[in-house]
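Hi F.,

I've been meaning to write this up properly since the lab meeting, where we talked about keeping a consistent format for the predictions we share between groups. The idea is simple: the sequence comes first, exactly as it goes in, then the structure tokens exactly as they come out, then a line or two of notes. No screenshots and no reformatting. I'm using this chain as the first example so we have something concrete to point to.
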Amino acid sequence: MAFAKRESVFPEKTMNQPKPEEDLKNRIEAILFSAGKKISLDDIARHARLYDKELIKKILYELQQDHEARNSPMMVVEEADAWKIIVKEKYLSYVKKIVAETEFPKSTMETLAIIVWKSPALQSEIVEIRSNKAYNHIDDLEKAGFIIKEKHGRSYLLRLSQKFFDYFDIKNEDEIKSKFERFKEKALKKMSGKETVTIPSGESQSPAGVSEI
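Output, unedited:
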């Protein structure tokens, strides 16, 4: 009795195609790399279009071992129910400047430079200098963990976080100036032609004790 040939659940492999399990591993590694930050297991599953979380965990642990076995400058890290790819500490000094300048648009880095120079600074002051677009920059910088935003009267006080100092390897004021001088100068040059600034009615201007540039 003849039986019909059962088709494989995976597409037919050619010489140039990875095995299905290798393709899944490559897919998940690409997702981690592209995320640029920790990403939850649920989000990995959604992007990979693979909903077997136990299989995803198995692949993530294999990726950890793969990077370690080949002495990669990168490592796969698990944090609670989230994962990320990071640069090993011994190589951080080579990439910090590159990451800092590519993770954010130049305009956001210019806003950060003004916050650095005035820290602690009122959000309303930064917006007055940088225009209304600074609200988005400040939100992005807070989400990245580089600044701390605290309610202060009718505005917010912006402070540099410990992550900022650790990330940019800054130990003193001179290092801040050397690393952010060019961004600050570009930001200040734009002040003469900046957009009309609208400070929300709930925000106040400079309080006493917050220095000017």
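Notes:
The chain has two domains: 20-87, 94-193.
The two ends are 89 Å apart (CA to CA).

If this format works for you, I'll send the rest the same way.

G.
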